[in-house]
């Protein structure tokens, strides 16, 4: 079963590059940059990856990101993720990065984006993986700070497909960022937003109506509002669902209680993603395996999830078609499953 989930062609649409910082790499970069970590060893770090909720995770995630100082650090982080993604047959990936996590520590925006961008270019050339970049605003910071970040991003417009919204959801509704998102769309960026991870269905409505998002990140709490579920199904607004993350951050008590299968059965365009794989116990294939095992997903479900990952991407129609043909021929050849 494991090889099927590694081999099936897929796209990943919800991965925070800072969340792919494996503890081994964190220690390697900390040594190189002479930075003291809040952990004494890789084992101690892994033991600390036990979270009560989103905020308790974010505190550790931002502490980890503090080791990233130089362009080479951002390059190495991104390159390592791309290698892992390719090993799980991710053909296309749409990667979030959080510039404010770094600019607030005095790291220039261009150091961050140049390191990531160079790795993405090498990923295309040397590994054959297609990618897009999504700039996320930290919603616990002010709208003014988000606007300043958007201004810093304008010279790099060609390298950034969309803007998004992440970090502490509760108390920081999408409406706080309406003006920034208006400006981002005016400048030609697509938009996405984390909504309905810990927040209510109302946050999802706001993301759709005020921020005009193309898709919702997480969105699992849409289930609170039958009208919203109907709307998401009719409009086929994709949800980038992250099953292992949701269990680790206690959005659901266990994988068996996750609503991925329910949302799929309701006709929503749901996808499976890893969110912060270094912290949540697995990359995209492990998310598929955990979901399949706990929720009894059948071959049709798995095919639909993989197909949705391409349909929900920011690729062109032709590119989507090409990748879906690739998926279809894989399914035909893989009769053992
Ligand atoms: N930043 C990194 N992972 C996140 C998540 N799951 N929710 C909100 N912000 C995040
Ligand atoms: Zn996320």
From TrEMBL:
Keyword Transcription: no
Residues binding Zn(2+): 14, 16, 194, 275
Alphabetically ordered keywords of this record: Hydrolase, Metal-binding, Nucleotide metabolism, Zinc
InterPro entries, A to Z: A_deaminase_dom, ADE, Ado/ade_deaminase, Metal_Hydrolase
Comment on bound cofactor: Binds 1 zinc ion per subunit.
GO MF term set: adenine deaminase activity; zinc ion binding
Main EC class the enzyme belongs to: hydrolase
Gene Ontology CC: one annotated term: cytosol
Domain Adenosine deaminase: 9-328
Sequence similarity: Belongs to the metallo-dependent hydrolases superfamily. Adenosine and AMP deaminases family. Adenine deaminase type 2 subfamily.
Entry function: Catalyzes the hydrolytic deamination of adenine to hypoxanthine. Plays an important role in the purine salvage pathway and in nitrogen catabolism.
Protein name per the record: Adenine deaminase
Organism this protein belongs to: [Phormidium ambiguum] IAM M-71
